[in-house]
Amino acid sequence: MFLSTFEKQLDAKRRIVVPQDFRAAISGPFDGVFCFPSIEADCIEGGGKALFDRYNGVIEELPFGDPLRTALETSVLGGMAQLSFDTAGRITLPEILCDMFGIDDWVTVVGLGDRFQIWEREAFKAHRATQRDLARQGLAELRAQQRAAKLGGGAA
Question: Cα(first)–Cα(last) distance of the chain, in Å?
Answer without folding.
Answer: 42
